[in-house]
Amino acid sequence: MSLGANRLVEIGKGLVSREVFVDREVYDIEQERVFGRCWLYLGHETQIPEPGDFLTTYMGEDPVILWRDPNGRPRAFLNTCRHRGNRLCLYERGNASAFTCSYHGWTYNGEGKLTGVPYHVEAYFDELDRDRWGLIQTPRLTSYGGMVFGSWDPDARSLDEYLGDVRWYLDAVLLVAEDLGGLEPVTSSRYAARGNWKIPAENFAGDHYHNPTTHGSSYKLGLRAAEFVGPQGRCGPFEVAIAPGHGLGGLTTGAESFERDLANADRVGPEARYYVEARYAAIKKRVKGAGSVPYSFSHANVFPNFAIWGGSALRGHGFFMFHPRGPLSTEVRQTVLFPREAPQVIKEMAIADLGRGGHFASGFFEQDDANNFEQVTQGTTSYIARQYPFYFGMGLGHEGRWPGQEEWEVHDLPGLIGPRFSEHPQRCFYAFWAELIGEGE
Amino acid sequence: MAHEQMRSELATRGSFLSPELQVGVERFLYYEAYLLDEKRLNEWVDLFTEDATYTISVREAVQRREEGDAPLGRVVPSLVDEGRAFLATRVKRLETHLAHAEQPPSLTRHLITNVLVRSGSGEEVHVSSNFQVYQARIDVSEHVFYGSRGDVLHRVDGEWRIARRDVVLDTSLLPRTITVFF
């Protein structure tokens, strides 16, 4: 298929073509126009605390090294030797003052400079322009709240501008950690999933609707509180669409979820109660002036593929990356971070829950989500199936005029705030995606 | 594990390791695998002692200048660190018929090899073994997990029971989510 022949995205009708999830040409264009241009999350500064510390990750399909240079500045380099393209670093993380290519021995320092070329006199007559053959570095790299983002687009708008109002929520709810000792990574996990990267990304952007069905076993066993049993609450959960393509949901506001966390904390002990109180007090201080106080959000997606999981003071935050590995495959990487001052007992409970009921590869939620990604893919790739679009019309035309919204405790909160069951964040995601690849309305 | 330690274990084990003990331990592990593959999961859980611990770890390739590389990479004990109650909950979840990742249930085949009784007595043994676990999900998804188990078996009322199991998967990137048992 060729772009332009058929509309891939028709947001006004709530339609997204299945080609978006399976077509190789769409995927290749997406590598260029989405992953080659957007700000992409690379890692957290606390994962590379010392000079020389590095981790390896991806920007789109491109392998990169996030490396703290000798002066303490994080840099991101393409993980490839300039000479013949050999992958330079084969480790997931560690510490190094230089990387030497295993093919011919070219060596690069922490600033990306080519510092060593074997036999450079005999082989190159000392004529090699080393400045020209340094590592390929992202032209843009910015740290926000310890989160390091990079972009290959030298003309990209600032990270601040790109994040837009999603920053307001992250400042208040995620980065309240800065008042509690700062975020620190406590554990991580990764697995291979069958399915296009956008399937989990849009799910994290705004899909509260799948919870009762997909995760039915967890609710039936009483492992999770079912927040959708009653009617839509006035303190949430809400789903929020945030320009240009971000989504955030499971948002709760005000004192209700604070009280729920307190009750759960009391079952753990006084240090847990103290922590939950300290966190809430810090959030209130951070948003002073706002009408309503955001307490927590359970899922978010910073466009394109950086998802943030949470939902309670007792859970910490998962930073999930959905790395594209071809149109039909995704590598899911998950790091869990906690405010340093959170009691050890809470951290341990949260880690155990991730592996047991939650979002690690062994957890119940993740098992069933990954099963959906796989079966969506299975039901979508074939010839006839591809001709029928997906429907994203939930809540279409009701934006900003939802029944009962005047009761909601969301005063002065930014973004387009809607009820727990609405696909406006996904429409926001695909509208921006279509704009980037030059498709859609 | 360090080779020196392994050698010394093997040098001293002759005093307690009879062929009968080796065969008995192997028979127990094969029976356990049979229960798993037959989906007799409640019976499988009953093979664990009440206070049993069960962990699943993966390996991570970490480069360290000062220490050199660990030959097998660092073991990351992050996925599962649980007890028997966790295993029972996993089985209960399957019984809700709402565990979509296992509806219909995966077909599995547990191949258990290299059973090495490393230390212990007639009442408690430390056993390492290797596994290959084949998982077929419906008709479109096939995966194989490789790894090792370090088990501590206790003899309870004349029968072996698992008091501790440490599973280490030989990968850092899991091939899929973990919906089966090891």
The CATH class of the largest domain in chain A turns out to be Alpha Beta
Largest interface in this structure: A-B, 42 and 35 residues
Query: How many DSSP-defined strands of chain A?
Result: 22
Structural classification of chain B: alpha+beta
Q: How far apart lie the N and C ends of chain B? A: 21 Å
Key descriptive features of the protein:
heterodimer; A: 441 residues; alpha+beta; Rieske Iron-sulfur Protein; Naphthalene 1,2-dioxygenase Alpha Subunit, Chain A, domain 1; 2 domains; 13 helices; B: 182 residues; Nuclear Transport Factor 2, Chain: A; 4 helices; 7 strands; 44% strand
Question: What does this protein look like?
Answer:
The complex is a heterodimer of chains A (441) and B (182). Chain A contains 13 helices and 22 strands. The model of chain A has no long low-confidence stretch (mean pLDDT 94). Chain A is globular and about 80 Å long. Chain A has 2 domains: 40-144, Rieske Iron-sulfur Protein (3-layer Sandwich), CATH 2.102.10.10; 164-437, Naphthalene 1,2-dioxygenase Alpha Subunit, Chain A, domain 1 (Alpha-Beta Complex), CATH 3.90.380.10. Chain A starts with 8 loop residues before the first strand and ends with a helix. With 441 residues, chain A is of the alpha+beta class. Chain A has helices at 19-22, 24-35, 120-124, 159-163, 166-174, 198-206, 211-214, 216-220, 255-268, 270-286, 344-356, 364-378, 424-437, and strands at residues 9-10, 15-16, 40-44, 53-59, 62-68, 74-78, 93-95, 98-100, 107-109, 114-116, 140-144, 147-151, 183-194, 238-242, 246-253, 294-296, 299-302, 306-309, 317-324, 329-339, 390-391, 416-418. In chain A, strands 13, 14, 15, 16, 17, 18, 19, 20 and 22 form a 9-stranded antiparallel sheet that branches. In chain A, α6 (198-206) packs across α13 (424-437) and α9 packs antiparallel against α10. Chain B has a 6-stranded mixed sheet. In chain B, 25% of the residues are buried. Chain B is globular. Chain B has one domain: Roll (Nuclear Transport Factor 2, Chain: A). Chain B has 182 residues and is of the alpha+beta class. Chain B has helices at 3-12, 19-37, 41-45, 84-95, and strands at residues 48-60, 62-63, 74-83, 107-120, 124-137, 141-156, 159-169. In chain B, β6 and β7 (159-169) form a beta hairpin. Chain B has 4 helices and 7 strands, in the order αααβββαββββ. The interface between A and B is large, with 42 and 35 residues. β7 (93-95) of chain A pairs parallel with β2 of chain B, so a sheet runs across the interface.
